[in-house]
Specification:
The structure is a single chain. The strands form 3 sheets. A 4-stranded antiparallel β-sheet has the order 1-2-3-4. Helices cover about 25% and strands about 40% of the residues. The protein is an alpha+beta fold and about 110 residues long. The protein has helices at about 1-10, 45-60, 80-85, and strands at about 10, 20-25, 30-35, 40-45, 65-70, 75, 95-100, 105-110. Helix 2 (about 45-60) packs across helix 3. It is built from 3 helices and 8 strands, in the order H-E-E-E-E-H-E-E-H-E-E. Strand 5 and strand 6 (about 75) form a beta hairpin. It folds into 2 domains: about 5-60, no CATH class; about 65-110. The structure holds zinc ion. Zinc ion (ZN) binds near residues 13 and 36.
Length: about 110
């Protein structure tokens, strides 16, 4: 678990001080990162930075995806960027709400 080790380690800051793991805020969302005690410099966790980047990009555009079938059910696949942005993993569940004759709302529920 390299990431767990990274999450708990301190980072050497440019000022010569050490940045300790901290919960930071980026664009209103809580993200993992490190904060230097000496100069207050903040370092955002690369995974969380990527998530925010994808979220911002994806919120500006509609993605067109194909609807396929699996047995008697219809399936929709979404691109890797979407699962990264929403941190979707196999085993997570989703609640689906029919909003209109051609609109669905999907809410991801992460497994604990
Ligand atoms: Zn510093």
């Amino acid at each position: 678990m390299i990431m767990t080790k990274l999450d708990n380690d301190e980072l050497k800051c440019d000022c010569g001080g050490w940045a300790k793991p901290a919960k930071l805020r980026l664009e209103g969302k809580e993200v993992r990162g490190w904060k230097c005690k000496k100069c207050d410099m903040e370092f955002i966790h690369p995974e969380d930075a990527q998530t925010i980047l994808y979220l911002n990009k994806l919120k500006k555009q509609a993605l067109e995806v194909k609807i396929g079938s699996l047995g008697s059910n219809q399936i929709i696949r979404f691109p890797k960027e979407v699962s990264t942005a929403l941190r979707v993993h196999s085993g997570d569940t989703a609640s689906i709400k029919v909003c209109d004759h051609n609109r669905l709302e999907i809410q991801i529920k992460h497994k604990k």
